[in-house]
Amino acid sequence: MSKMPVNPPSWRNDTVLPLPNEVKANAWAVDAACSGNPGPMEYQCIDLQTGAQVFHYGPIHGTNNIGEFLAIVHALALMDQKGITDKVIYSDSVNAQLWVNKKQCKTKLERTPQTEQLYQVIARAENWLRTHPITVPIFKWETKKWGEIPADFGRKG
RNA sequence: ACAU
DNA sequence: TCATGT
Ligand SMILES: [Mn+2]
Ligand SMILES: [Mn+2]
């Protein structure tokens, strides 16, 4: 029998999705994907407790950062609509979290007939943010430590 | 440089 | 390798 000290496990395995111990399971994770950037963009949300997809939107022509932004706002609005107050949100996008806190999508995507529909969606999201307080914590998913966020589309490299 |  | 962003 070894006398070596055994470190406590850093990952929990009692959840549907294995999660790092530092990660809250009562949470939704969001992520965006873009086929080309700009290009056909989509985003989705995964419930970390069940692994179920909570919502999916797109594809629609846009950028990675617009998708990351809209995904967070969509999660906030849906939680509000469902009366969910105890969950938190994970996103891997520092940029999107900054935009949400500013309540403004600071994209440089050209505004053309092709992007007009998306700009309308952005306007609705910004309007929602201006008219609702953000009460749910939004946490950075630490990809380098934990691997890809569970909402990732798994299409990179 | 950092994060996508 | 390219693009989106602070
Ligand atoms: Mn992401
Ligand atoms: Mn991803």
From TrEMBL:
Q: Which PROSITE patterns match?
A: RNASE_H_1
Q: What is its EC number?
A: 3.1.26.4
Stored SUPFAM superfamilies: Ribonuclease H-like
Cite the RNase H type-1 domain residue spans from the record: 22-157
Tell me the Gene3D superfamilies matching this sequence: Ribonuclease H-like superfamily/Ribonuclease H
One Pfam family this chain carries?
A: RNase_H
Judged by the first EC level, this protein's enzyme class is hydrolase
List localization entries.
Cytoplasm
Predominant location category: cytoplasm
Q: Which regions form coiled coils?
A: none
The yes or no answer to whether the keyword Magnesium is present is yes
List all membrane-crossing ranges: none
Question: Which InterPro entries does this one have?
Answer: RNase_H_bac (IPR017290), RNaseH-like_sf (IPR012337), RNaseH_domain (IPR002156), RNaseH_sf (IPR036397)
Query: Which keywords appear in this protein's UniProt record, sorted alphabetically?
Result: Cytoplasm, Endonuclease, Hydrolase, Magnesium, Metal-binding, Nuclease
Q: Catalysed reaction(s)?
A: Endonucleolytic cleavage to 5'-phosphomonoester
Q: Member of which family?
A: Belongs to the RNase H family.
Q: What does this protein do?
A: Endonuclease that specifically degrades the RNA of RNA-DNA hybrids.
- This chain belongs to which protein, by name? Ribonuclease H
- Where does this protein come from, organism-wise? Segatella sinensis
